[in-house]
Structure formats: structure tokens, C-alpha cells
From TrEMBL, chain A:
Recorded family membership: Belongs to the ABC transporter superfamily.
Taxonomy, superkingdom: Bacteria
Boundaries of every ABC transporter domain copy: 2-237
Official protein name in the record: Polar amino acid ABC transporter ATP-binding protein
PANTHER family recorded: AMINO ACID IMPORT ATP-BINDING PROTEIN (PTHR43166), PHOSPHONATES IMPORT ATP-BINDING PROTEIN PHNC (PTHR43166:SF4)
Gene3D superfamilies: P-loop containing nucleotide triphosphate hydrolases (3.40.50.300)
Keywords associated with the record: ATP-binding, Cell membrane, Membrane, Nucleotide-binding, Transport
Pfam families linked: ABC_tran
UniProt KW Transport keyword: yes
Single GO MF descriptor: ATP binding
Statement: the UniProt record of this protein carries the keyword Hydrolase: no
Source organism of this protein record: Jeongeupia chitinilytica
Chain coiled-coil ranges: none
TrEMBL record, chain B:
Protein name, as recorded: Amino acid ABC transporter permease
Domain spans labelled ABC transmembrane type-1: 17-212
Main location: membrane
Pfam families: BPD_transp_1
Membrane topology listed for this record: Multi-pass membrane protein
Taxonomic source organism: Jeongeupia chitinilytica
Protein family according to the UniProt entry: Belongs to the binding-protein-dependent transport system permease family. HisMQ subfamily.
InterPro entries: AA_ABC_transptr_permease_3TM (IPR010065), ArtM/GltK/GlnP/TcyL/YhdX-like (IPR043429), MetI-like (IPR000515), MetI-like_sf (IPR035906)
Chain segments annotated as transmembrane: 20-41, 62-84, 90-109, 193-212
Intracellular or extracellular location(s): Cell inner membrane; Cell membrane
Keywords: Cell membrane, Membrane, Transmembrane, Transmembrane helix, Transport
Domain of life: Bacteria
Biological classification of the source: Bacteria, Pseudomonadati, Pseudomonadota, Betaproteobacteria, Neisseriales
Length: 246, 221
């Protein structure tokens, strides 16, 4: 579904942010990407829908080469849902309009069809009663659930999550992770950048560990948590799992 | 003081005010539209486009409005005649309208540009990530938010424009001030008519300005 072949990316001339990335994500797989901050994990998933262009190599999403200049990037993006750390809901639109905007504009869906779809998705994320609310009147957890519904409204083949719970108060993390888990169980192909190791353990099929722009580990959650292969990963796990760091 | 001559002159003053307001509204609409296009050009990644827009803005902000008005009075009829191939005179009103639109666009551009820049990059990314094009993103996501934020500034600039419309006297257009001046001249009570005109300008500008301030407070809360 997603394939990286020898992908390299630099910021400026010196900062080599992705180093020779090779990676394949199969249909229906749930891959958690973790690593210390600055390791390039957000950049990695942003290259999949070209929010970040790459300098070298090839990224293939469902048979479409992302970094080919001839590729209709808007069409590709319509098939790849993206959930941001800071939700990025449109503040001037109601919850319902946030969700229906892209289906109506990009997919030329009728308003009735788009609203019906939006209501099904709001039902699914447990916010059907908030359809007329504005983002400013929702909690962070609710905003993120709307953002997930907005992404799903394009009926994407893949969903990408860029630290979806990092900007949330602790008591709201659970509701967002529950929606994501439900989505994973429905068979959605997902790549999730997160520090939620509980989610990785329970929901992920695979865990990628990145440090300094390189994939150091690519294995099952079981193997990653019990027998990490690199010192860098052992150190990371010690830091993130130690009681002092919650 | 005797105000009876003011009453007699009222129809002329009213039609002068209508001309002023017509000029104002059309110039605002055209100026904001052109200013928005200029702002998008200035923010474009295309160097040529952004430099051209930058030159336009800096040029018009560096010359007096009165010069633009008189200059366009002579040049615009010539250009339009050349474009349409006719020699129909287009008159002072349209040459002034074009002058105001183009001059004010330079100022509106800077307001719109700041407005667009105040919207977080995440909004653009969110729209792009859903497959929206640049123009859909601007039209449906960024500009509606930006215009909401900059409405007070756009209105403030439009109040200045309202006062500046009086400069059309230079090409003999009978706007409100010019009507008042000429009516006052005819009856020999120029000072009364000018005082009256000043009062009207003050009430409208100050009233509008107060409303804008109130709006601004409401928008920031």
C-alpha cells in the first residue's frame, strides 16, 4: 500500500532528516512510528502525502508514485487521510461543514450525500450531537475526533496520524485512541506517529523506531518492547517507560 | 446665521453625496478585489509575480493620490479608447473610479497580506491534506478567516478613502464637497456651505470609525 524506496530528504544543505528510508506497509496494516523528538518521524509520514517533498528516492502509495511531478497530487491526497497534532479544524465552519467541505469540493459529492456520510462518521466517533457546534466550543479530544471524521469523509485508503494525542490533556487521550483502535479493527491501513506505547502494544501490527533520520528497528510490538535490537531503542524505551516520565 | 439657502441647495448636495457614495462603494469593491489578488501575488512562490506585485504596491504608496487622479483623467480615456477602438469620452467619473481602485488596492493589499499571514500554516496543510487545490484552499479556508480578522482594518482604510474621494474636485467631478463649494459660491455663502460640508464629513467618518472600534472589540473578545 505504501512503499518507500531509498528515500532521502534534507532540510537546507546540511540537515539530513531522512536517511535512505526503505519501508513497506501492507494493506490493513497498522504501523506505529516512534522515536525521540527530531528523529524525523513526523517528516516521514508527511512525505507520504507530499506535505513535505523528498529530495531523492521514490514513494509509492497504492500504485501511485508520490514524488513524480506528473502525479495529480490533489487526487493522491484525497485518498490519504491525515490527522494533525493540533487538529487544524476550520474555526469558521461548523463541525458538519468541516467534514463536508472536502467531499463536496474535491469529490463533487452532493450536499445531501456528504451530510449523510458526515453524520454516519460523527455517529462513529460519538459526536453526532455536536454537528452544529463550532470547533472553539469543543474540547481538544472532541476536536481531534472531528478531525478524524473529517479525514475519513474522503473515504481514504490510508490514514496517517501525526502525534494525534500529543496536544491533548491526559484525560482526553483515551477517547481519541479508542476511535483509532476501532478504525484499526475495521481494517484501515494506518501509520501512526505516537508516544502512546500502550496503543503500540495493543493495536499496532508493527513498530518502527526512528533516530536521527534512520529506521533502526522495524519489528512487531512484542519484539520491540521485550527485545529491542539497538542501544538507541533500549535507551528510548527506558526513558519513555520509566515511571519518572509517566 | 441663515440656513435657508442650504435648504434650497439640498437637492444638489444630495446628488453630490450620492456620487461620493457611489464612487466610494465601487472603489472599495474594486480596490479590495484587486488588493486581494495583489496580496496573493505578493505571497506567491513565483518570484516574478511577487516582485511585480511588490513593485506595484510600493509604487502606488509612494506617489500622491492627487497625482494619480489627474494622471488617470488624461490617460484612462486614451487607454480605454485604444482598447475598445472607439473615441467615446468615458468621463471623469470612470477615470476617477479606476484611479481610486488602483491606488487603494495597494493599501488593501498590505492589509489582506497581513491577514493571510496571520492564519496558521496548519490550516493550509489541513486543506491540502484533504486534496483541495490552492484556489479552493484560499477561497474556502484561508480568505474567509483572514477577512474576518481584517474587517476592522479594511473599514478603517475605507473611511480614509471616503475622505479622499473629495480630491475628485481636481478633475471637476461634482461630488459632495464640490457641490457644496459651488452652491456656496453661487449664493455667496461659501463659509456656511463649507462648514456644513465639514460637519457632514465629520459625522459620517467619526460615526463609522466608532462603529468599527466597537466591531473590533467584539471580534477580539
Amino acid at each position: 500500500m505504501i512503499r518507500f524506496s531509498s528515500v532521502n530528504k534534507w532540510y537546507g544543505r546540511d540537515h539530513h532528516v531522512l536517511k535512505n528510508i526503505n519501508l513497506e506497509v501492507k494493506q490493513g496494516e497498522v504501523v506505529v512510528v516512534c522515536g525521540p523528538s527530531g528523529s524525523g518521524k513526523s517528516t516521514l509520514i508527511r512525505t507520504i502525502n507530499q506535505l513535505e517533498p523528498i529530495n531523492d528516492g521514490e514513494i509509492n502509495v497504492g500504485g501511485v508514485i508520490v514524488n513524480n511531478p506528473k502525479t495529480d497530487i490533489n487526487k493522491l491526497r484525497a485518498d490519504v487521510g491525515f490527522v494533525f497534532q493540533h487538529f487544524n479544524l476550520y474555526p469558521h465552519l461548523s463541525v458538519l461543514d468541516n467534514i463536508t467541505l472536502a467531499p463536496m469540493q474535491v469529490k463533487k459529492m452532493s450536499r445531501e450525500a456528504a451530510e449523510q456520510l458526515a453524520m454516519e462518521l460523527l455517529e462513529r466517533v460519538g459526536l453526532a450531537n455536536k454537528k452544529h457546534a463550532y470547533p472553539a466550543n469543543l474540547s481538544g479530544g472532541q476536536q481531534q475526533r472531528v478531525a478524524i471524521a473529517r479525514g475519513l469523509a474522503m473515504q481514504p485508503k490510508v490514514m496517517l496520524f501525526d502525534e494525534p494525542t500529543s496536544a491533548l490533556d491526559p484525560e482526553m487521550i483515551g477517547e481519541v485512541l479508542a476511535v483509532m483502535q476501532q478504525l484499526a479493527e475495521s481494517g484501515m491501513t494506518m501509520m501512526v506517529v505516537t508516544h502512546e506505547m500502550g496503543f503500540a502494544r495493543e493495536v499496532a501490527d508493527r513498530v518502527l523506531f526512528l533516530a536521527e533520520g534512520e529506521i533502526l528497528e522495524d519489528t512487531t510490538p512484542e519484539a520491540f518492547f521485550t527485545a529491542p535490537q539497538t542501544d538507541r531503542a533500549r535507551q528510548f524505551l527506558r526513558q519513555i517507560l520509566s515511571p519518572m516520565h509517566g | 446665521m441663515d440656513f435657508s439657502s442650504l435648504v434650497t441647495a439640498m437637492p444638489g448636495l444630495v446628488s453630490g453625496m450620492m456620487l461620493t457614495l457611489k464612487l466610494l462603494v465601487l472603489a472599495i469593491v474594486g480596490g479590495v478585489a484587486l488588493g486581494t489578488l495583489l496580496a496573493l501575488a505578493r505571497l506567491s512562490h513565483n518570484k516574478l509575480l511577487s516582485n511585480l506585485a511588490g513593485f506595484y504596491v510600493n509604487y502606488f504608496r509612494s506617489i500622491p493620490l492627487l497625482l494619480v487622479i489627474t494622471w488617470f483623467y488624461f490617460v484612462v480615456p486614451f487607454i480605454i479608447g485604444w482598447l475598445t477602438g472607439t473615441n467615446e469620452p468615458i468621463g471623469a467619473f470612470y477615470s476617477c473610479l479606476v484611479a481610486f481602485m488602483m491606488f487603494e488596492a495597494a493599501y488593501y493589499c498590505e492589509i489582506v497580506r497581513a491577514g493571510i499571514q496571520s492564519i496558521s500554516r496548519g490550516q493550509v496543510n489541513a486543506a491540502y491534506a484533504l486534496g483541495m487545490t490552492y484556489s479552493q484552499t484560499m477561497r474556502l479556508v484561508i480568505l474567509p478567516q483572514a477577512f474576518r480578522k481584517m474587517t476592522p482594518l479594511l473599514l478603517q482604510q475605507s473611511i480614509i478613502l471616503f475622505q479622499d474621494t473629495s480630491l475628485v474636485y481636481a478633475v471637476g467631478l461634482m461630488d459632495f464637497l464640490n457641490s457644496a463649494r459651488s452652491a456656496g459660491d453661487i449664493v455667496g455663502e461659501l463659509h456656511q456651505f463649507l462648514l456644513f460640508a465639514g460637519l457632514v464629513y465629520f459625522i459620517i467618518s467619526f460615526g463609522a470609525s466608532t462603529l468599527v472600534k466597537r466591531l473590533q472589540k467584539r471580534l477580539t473578545v
